[in-house]
Each structure stands twice: as C-alpha cells, then as structure tokens.
Amino acid sequence: MKFAALVKSAALVTAVAIIPATTAGMAQVDGRVGPEFAKLFATYERIKAAYVEPVDDEQLIRGAIDGMLGSLDPHSAYLDGADLQRLETMIDGNYSGLGLSVQMDDGAVKVISPFRGSPAMEVGIKAGDYITHLDGELIYGGDLDDAVSRMRGPAGTDIRLTIFRPGRDEPFDVTVTRGVIELEPVTHKLEEGNIGVIMVNEFSRDVGADVFAAWQELRTEASGRLQGLVLDLRSNPGGSLDEAVALSDLFLTKGRIVSQRGRAQGETIFFDSETVYRGEIARDTPMIVLIDAGSASASEIVAGALQDHRRAVIMGDRSFGKGSVQTLLPLGRDAALKLTTARYYTPAGHSVQEGGIKPDISVPQLSDPDLEKRARFRMRESDLRGHLVNEAALKDEELERDKNDDPRFLLTAAELKEQGVEDFQLDYALRTLRRTASTNMARRN
C-alpha cells in the first residue's frame, strides 16, 4: 500500500524532479535486438562459470540494469529498498542528516546545493563542492546511495567530510553535526520599505498553498500596502511538477505555464493557468524572482513561466538547466524505474535543457568570497556526463555570455561585509524594488 501511494504521489524533491507515471504502456521489444540479448546472456553465463569468485544472480542482474540506465542520462535510475525509502522520506518532508542535494559526477559526490538552514549550510558547504572522504575513508568511485546513507544518521551525531573546493589548492576537513532536516519548503520575511520576501526551498507537497499563506501573512505584517515582492528560488533543486504549476498559477491569470513533450503516447501534456487557483495574488505588486546555478527543474518551470508572461523580473545567475521529466514506473511491488520520458518547455516554447533560465538582470553573488574561483568550476546540467542535448544546439559562448564583467558589480566580499551586506543578490533585489516600486517597472508589462 505504501509503495502504491508513493508511485501515485506527486514526487520526490531533489535536483531531479520525478513526475508521476502518466501511462502504463510499455515499449515492445524490437525483434532485431535478439542478437544483443544473446550477447548479454552469454556474458552472464561466462561470469557465472569463470569469475574468480562466486557471484549471485541478484548482483549481476542489478549491475546489468544499472548499466543500461547509466548509458542513457544522469537522471534515469533503478530504485528499490533503501532508494525507495529515501524517496518516501523526502516526500514526507523530514529526515536526520546533513541537508544536502548531491549528484554523482564522474565517480565523485558533487554538491548541487545545501538546503537553507541545514547543518551543511551552517558549516559553509557550498554548491559545486566535491566530497572526497567520509570520516577519513575515500568514497571516490563508490556508490552514491552508500555515500548518502552514511551521511544520514541520528541527529546530534558528527561526521567528518573532506571537501575539495574548485579554486582552492588543498582539500579541507569540516565536521558536521547531523540534525533533523525539517524540509520547510516555504519561509518568508518582511523587509524595510514594505518589501516581502518569500523563499521557496524545495517543491514538496502543498508548496503553492504555503506560498499563498506566506503572502497573506506578509500583507498582515506590513504597515500599509506591500510595495514589492521577492520570490527567492536560489539553491532550490526542484521537485513536484504539480507544485511548480500551482505556484506559477498563483501569479498568472491566463496562458500556458509549462508543457512537457515526450516520445511515448500520453507523455505530451500542457499545463495552463487558472487550473489550480482562480485569480492572481500580488496583482500590481512589482515582483523579482531570484535564481542561481542551484535553481533546477521545478524552480526553472516557475521562473520560465513568470519570465515569459512578463509577470516578474528574473534576477541572479543562470539556472541549472534541467529541462527533462522523470516518470516513476513500478516494477513489481517493491521496485521502480525512474526514467526520463519527456522534455519540458516554457510558455514561449523554449527548452530549459542545458541552457537553463537566463536572468533578465545578471547579478553575481559578490558576498561570496570564493565567487571568482568557484565560477570557473560551477556545475550545471550541461556538465553532467550523458546529459540530454538541447534541441536548439546552443553554443558554449551563448551559454557563457552572462559572465562578462559588469561595472555595477565591482565591490569585494570584504567591502560588502563592512557595509553589513551578507547576501548581495537579495540586497540588490530589495534596492531595485525600493527604487522602482512607484513606477511599477519590476512588473515588466
């Protein structure tokens, strides 16, 4: 019953959003692959008969499955046992661990982003870091699931991580105390000048409803009318497509939100506004959406929809660029296939795959002292081995165009710290809204 509910649910919240299965149809095996299956079976028989040590069938079959999926793209995978349990845990919204979204990258565990307020963020772990050792034991070349399992554990216990940070000459150790990771998807605060800030940390259940509640609370807290709104999607690794649509629908009253297009029948679906929420919150309120290289998947759906409909100014860094849809297909009672089945497109028909969402105003995070060094090694979807290629065949120089120096952004992290600015991107967004609120420039239309 638990597994059936899991497959039916709207999905996992990680850097690779899972969309529930929309079709039960299975591809027919092409008769021409018979000789290839013969090779596979012959290999199995040779291993069973001649390998130096006995090998059980489960190990060989699992290896064959992982090999097939590994030849496709970074987001397709076979899930069973602990993998499915972690999926359920993430949907439930809390677990004990470090609070990291990670991805295997050429045998190395690479940080996509730390969750806001997590133990990992508090000790300074950053997107783009590589974790090479756990408690002094090398994990390079190992299994991602094993590494994730070891990083989780009872709250209050410590684990020592060895971090390689691109741009630094030497690795360094950091000890992290595990905590109960309450995946609080939405937080908010009221800033000077009656500017509301809503931070969406991940797209789990009820994110649309939570953002609506946050908006209502901000209106209550404000002394008068709210003069602007910042929707902060930075370091948000994604999650449920349904919740991305719901959040976008809060701010739109007409038109398409996103479309997904796949090869199989039933995998081409269109999602329009006014299907989840009627009307529009924050009407006539200037709005900025903050994104960065850690904003992936569902975050990019929201940013793309609000950008194409000219509802908000998109600000920050180019997003991660994960524009593919993963469907969860059951394989029996206790296993499932997470398979990339479609690409998704913004209302204007742009594919997010590889290129990501380009901000209207590129604002570097100058308050990060390692910004210049780490920027050269920043990871996006296009850096992952085997990633799907953008159908538009964008050239590298087109993807990197937003990295040119801007005379507006010359202050150093140390100089900003002296001024009391700890988050330059947010500070810039707030100052922009305070300057433009009276003219409504940040509404774009």
Number of helices: 13
The value of Rg in angstroms is 23 Å
Structural class given helices, strands, pairing? alpha+beta
CATH architecture of the largest domain: Alpha-Beta Complex
Instruction: Supply the CATH superfamily name of the largest domain.
Output: 2-enoyl-CoA Hydratase, Chain A, domain 1
User: The biggest beta sheet, please?
Assistant: 6 strands, mixed
Determine the CATH topology of the largest domain: 2-enoyl-CoA Hydratase, Chain A, domain 1
Q: State the end-to-end distance.
A: 49 Å
Work out the count of structural domains: 2
Instruction: Report low-confidence residues grouped into runs of 5 or more.
Output: 1-27, 441-445
Oligomer: single chain
Q: Briefly, what CATH class of the largest domain?
A: Alpha Beta
The helicity comes to: 25-40%
Average of the residue pLDDT scores:
82
Strand content: 15-25%
- How many strands? 20
Sum up the overall morphology in one term: globular
